[in-house]
Structure formats: structure tokens, C-alpha cells
Amino acid sequence: MAERKVVLAWDAKRWELRIFEERLKGLAIVVAASGSRLLEEIVDAEAAVGRLPDEAVMAACRLKFVQAPWAGVDGFNLELLRSKGVVLASAKGCNARAVAEHALALMLALAKRIAQLSERVKSGGWVPWSEETFLDDLEGKTVVIVGYGNIGRELARMCRCLGMRVIGVRRRRPAEPDEYAERVVGLSELGEVAGEADFLVVALPLTPETRGAVGRRVLKAMKPTAYLVNVGRGAVVDEEALYEALTKGWIAGAALDVWWSYPPDPSAPSRLGVHKLPNVVATPHKAGWTREARRRCLEFAAENVARYLRGEEPLNVVDYSNPY
Q: Do 96-282 and 5-93+291-309 fall under one CATH topology?
């Protein structure tokens, strides 16, 4: 019987490769490859980790299992994987703490005007002590967290420590009370609770159900003093509606770590220039990109591949009919 093989679809660092070699010892050989070499190595691989280009999926003869070493799976060709009979699993939850910390940092950056004040001082200016230059407090404010899963609940825990009121929004209303949120409502009720938000934080994955979930109706329901923070996926928020909300004063500002397009797309990250608006704080999709989060995600991915190879049920298997 041919030796089983697992391909890492990127130029893995030595420490990254070691995680998989240690977890999969005695189960499979591990190879890291990208570009044209990936197309050669994937042919006889049974499992792969990372995002695969369509040509790699088509070239694979034995591929049965793909593991995403991150939470979102919207970057995969789900129809192609399903048609080839390949099981896809995510690593949702492994970087929840890092993403929640980044969301909180963006909330603080908005409330304390960090970017604007830093730019003013660096350019040789100063800001007077006047009522017009008051900053905002987080204590006593309401945060509505849209996507009340691993990231959302971790953020809720942090916000409660700061004395904030928390409302969670998830696909379906839970049966039991939550220890951090005052209440948790279903996604269909987002328009009703948006008006209570001082901060509306989006932590939703991108699925057919969530695309454009934060649109004009939700943004117009928000207070003119409220802020939007997005650490989920760009297309969960309607780009045109957000541009209108930010330029017409429906909301006070936004902080975005996720976008509607990415390089090398010439329109990236926003074809409307949302990232250039003065009331926007912009970061380049780095919320979950910490060394510790990367290590946890790779360790989870390696163990999940091991589960598959041992004939056990992998965790976080993606439902292709509602991909998350």
C-alpha cells in the first residue's frame, strides 16, 4: 500500500512544518509546497492543509480531505470540492482570542480618536482641551455583537470587564441565557437591536445567508453617535450603504479589518474608497495574525488531519449547503 501523504499548500516555515510532522508521525508523510511544485505534489496526496487553487484540486487524484488552518472558508471553491467528493474542515475558534482583542483595539481607537490625534501631533499640531474635543468612554456603552460565536463571546467577556452592556446576535436565538450578554437575539432581529448600539461589531462568517446582512436598514437604524467595527468578512456589510452612512452622518465612524476586495485587485480594499474616509480606521486583515494564534490554528489543523487519518470524525466539517 502506498504511503499516505499530506500536503501543506504554502512555503511552510520550519517550525510550522514541525507541528505537522510531530502530529502525523506514523500516519503520513508531510510535504510543504506552493506554485508549480504544489501541482506536482498534490497528485498523490490524500489530505491537504491550506487554500488550494482550482488547478490543484483538479490535479489531485487521491485527495479526500482539506483542512483550512483558519476560520473562514469563503475563499475556497466549495462547489468544486463538493463535486470532487472532498471533505472540507475549518479551524474556527483557534484564533478567537486574537480577533476579539483586535476588535476591542478598534473600538478603543474609535472612541479615543487614536488615529486622528496621532496624525495631528505628528504633523506638528495640537488639540485644545475643549468640549468639542472630548473623547468617548466605553464604560456604560452598549455593544451589539453580530456573530455571537467563539469570537463574539470572547469579545463580550472583555467588554463586560470594561463595564459595557452586551447584546449578542446569532443565526438563531439560543435556548439558554448567556453569561456575558444581557440578551441574545436571532439574526432576523438585527434591525431591531441596531438602534441600541454605541458599537456594532460584526464577527460573522460570509455565507449566502450573511452576505449584505448589515445594509441600509441596519445602518439607518443606528444612532448618529454610533460606530461600526468589522472583523468578520467584508461582504457581510453592504459597501455602498456603509459609504453612504459614513458620508451622510448616519453613524459617527467605522473601523474595518476585513474588506470587499484584496490585492492584486486594483480596486482593493474598497472600490468606493471607504478606507480613505476621515472617520474610518483601517487595518489590513490582521486581526487573527499573531504568532500565538497561528500556532494554535496549525496545531488544531494538524490534529484534525490526524483524526481523519485515524478514521475518526474530524471537527468543524463544513456543511456545503450553509458553508461554515
A: yes
Top CATH class, 5-93+291-309 = alpha beta
User: What is the rounded (10 degree) CA torsion for 281, 284, 288, 291?
Assistant: -120
CA gap 41, 64 in Å, rounded? 15
Adjacency order of strands within the sheet including 29-32: 29-32, 5-8, 47-49, 65-67, 87-89
Widest Cα–Cα separation across the chain = 77
pTM check: above 0.90: yes
List the grid coordinates of 12: 511552510
Q: Looking at 21-157, which runs of residues are DSSP E strands?
A: 29-32, 47-49, 65-67, 87-89, 142-146
Sign of CA dihedral 79, 80, 83, 89: negative
Spatial contact of 143 and 197, defined as CB atoms under 8 Å apart: yes
In the block, which residue shows the cell 460570509? 206
User: Is residue 165 within 8 Å of residue 198, measured between CB atoms?
Assistant: no
Contact between residue 217 and residue 191 where contact means Cβ atoms under 8 Å apart? yes
Nearest-angstrom CA–CA distance, 260 and 296: 27
Burial 203-238 (b: 16+ CB within 10 A, else e): bbbbbeebeebbbeebbbbbbeebbbbbbbbbbbbb
Residue 322: helix, strand or coil by DSSP?
Answer: coil
Q: What would the pLDDT profile of 258-316 be if each residue is shown by its tens digit?
A: 999 999 999 999 999 999 999 999 999 999 999 999 999 999 999 999 999 999 999 99
Rg (CA), the chain: 22
Query: Domain coordinates of the chain in residue numbers?
Result: 5-93+291-309, 96-282
**Class for the domain spanning 96-282:** alpha beta
Identify any residues that bridge with 166 across adjacent strands, giving them in sequence order: 143
Measured from the Cβ of residue 160, the count of other Cβ atoms closer than 10 Å reads: 16
